[in-house]
Amino acid sequence: MTIYKNLLARGYFPKELPPSFFSDHFAAYATSKAGRAVLDSYKPSDNFTECVSYRLALPGLNHRLLRIPHPYSYSKLARITAKNFRRLLQKAGKSTFSKSRPVYQVGQRRALRTLVKPSSLARERALSRGGASHLLKVDISQFYPSLYTHAVGWAVDPKLRDRANWSKKSLVGKQLDQALMDLQGKVSQGIPIGTDLSFLLAETVLSQVDNSIDIGKSSAYRWFDDYEFACNTREEAERILSSLQRELDSFRLRLNPKKTQIIELPQPASDGWHDVIIDASKTAFSRPHAMVRYFDIVFSLASGHPELPILLYAIGALFQNHKPWDSVLRVAESCISQAMLREPGCAQKGLSLLQFWQINGCPIDRALWAHTVEQIILRHERSGASSDVAWALAFCIAQKLPVSKKAGRILASLDDDVISIQSLHANSLGLVSGLSKSGIEKFLLKSEMDGNHWFAIYESVRHGFLTSLALKVTSNNLMNDMLNKGVTFYRPTLPSYSLVIHSGGAPDWITRKWIKTITTTNPEKFEEIFAGNSILALMGEDLKSIPHQEKNEIEILLDLMSIEEPDTAVFEPYA
């Protein structure tokens, strides 16, 4: 797979979307001779496009605004990036203390990953503090939303800071700057959160900042926009703070004063609650009272720190290699439903766990989850976040759970592309009786194919949900050609395990064991292998139901899941 195709297939959509949303079709289209010719000749109205918004729920009442760029503009940015990929990755990898440096990989869910896994950050912090007495902790204020697109150009080509070079379109930095503005309505303030290209370009900027800071003999640590400097004296910490502020000023970035502090060491390198939860989870399945005790501990921790993803982490710790007894399962379901309604952002992990249990032969309480899903939808107006509702709808579609008329009316009123596509799909299955298509139609009719609702318009026509919008698609050269070639960004039909094996679902150790087994086993022996093995049983029926085509079952499965054996490419300049 070429770098360009990999960036389109594995780096386009935010990883937080439900697995029915994918970009593999578009990657194949954009890298074909015919598709590339259409993209090359396409001219957006007003010479720019806009992004679709997807609001990611976070603990508390916060959310993060993720973006889905228009396919034309994203492919243009991806092509520039791919053409200059080695240079950009080397620039992004020059920082000597960034733990979020991008590493290019093929055959994985994402085209880029961080150098260090989040689970190893506490160890990295502890190592960086050795021999120091003071710690400077800082955070860049609203980093992605405030990152100037021109700053990306400056980081790639410093000569763009000179007025004489502003109009030199041959400079890669200028091309990236222009492409970033063109994909978000000519706005130069901020870059879209969610794509791998934004991750790469943001790290390119901060890597230049890192290399310009005078840290002397102090140790440094950075994870995205969070910095730590371990110093010998308070005066040294103050000097580094001044140096960092100067360098950030040069890229028009600012520190968050509320998160800037100098404290004395030693300090805990981790929050501590992770270990408490892991220890408690080891006995949670032994009996119902143990599960009650587990969630008592978890709920107490969460009440003291509502801003932390404690409940999300606790749900993830319940992915284990055995089936819960029915009496234990009932307690777990009750507590998980409470957690999902208490902490925004829990739906993705919680519903994945339920799907995992059900596929492994544990009957879930459908009445409880129909009620919980409805409450998630009804509470959308309070949180304003898309993600919990999107995952709730994905679960409803997978489980064939009906949605009430009241919830259907709310779904129809939300100007949200991802939710609208799912709602229309659920309605076509007879699961949403109260959905008014005219409500969705109304807000889509006001938008154009280059605007911020291109996604819902295209998929509504592509799948026949709203044929009244067909003229909008067919009158657009690019979208019409994609439609004629069968390109889609939404899969209505997915195997049930897709809600389990994804970036926000089962932990890596389950995924690795699962992938290893299905890729090294003769398909004729699947039934024998799965018998009595609860983790791998989740593959049994689904794999047998995959139709025989030119590929065998495993190849089809890997294509569906977008997963192969890991293969990190040789583009690590710091390796």
Automatic annotation (TrEMBL):
Matches recorded under Pfam families? RVT_1 (PF00078)
Which residue range or ranges hold the Reverse transcriptase domain? 70-278
Alphabetically ordered keywords of this record: Coiled coil
Against CDD domains, the record matches this protein to: RT_Bac_retron_I (cd01646)
Top-level taxon in the UniProt lineage: Bacteria
For this protein, the record's InterPro entries field holds: RT_dom (IPR000477)
Decide whether keyword Coiled coil is in the record. Answer: yes
Q: Please give the coiled-coil regions recorded for this protein.
A: 227-254
For this entry, the protein name equals: Reverse transcriptase domain-containing protein
* Organism annotation: Burkholderia lata (strain ATCC 17760 / DSM 23089 / LMG 22485 / NCIMB 9086 / R18194 / 383)
